Amino acid sequence: MAVQPKTPLKKPIWTLIVLNLTDGFLTYWGLVAGAIEEANPLLSSFAPLTIFLIKLLLSACLAGFLFTPLVHLQSRFWRYFLLSVNVLYFGILALHITWLTLVYL
């Protein structure tokens, strides 16, 4: 039985990929429905589809990290950094759930 190399950052990176894609989809949906406005000043000048494609590209780039030595780092800094980013994204998704509830219920 082969020993699997430790990949402590794999789950946080996958979580970030899923959260980013979910954020992109919900943002696209909200913008197209006219229910929200893009709050990110870097993205606010783009069309909804462009914003979604940027999020898709970012998620693909994040997925690329899964095939690099970064995923094997035993660094507390990177684990806490990714945890912080994921918590921030969960907060953003909570805002999305709030406007979804207000608009569609």
UniProtKB/TrEMBL annotation:
Keywords: Membrane, Transmembrane, Transmembrane helix. The chain crosses the membrane at residues 12-36, 42-68, 80-102. Signal peptide: none annotated. Residues 15-101 form the DUF5658 domain. Pfam families: DUF5658. This is DUF5658 family protein. It comes from Planococcus dechangensis.
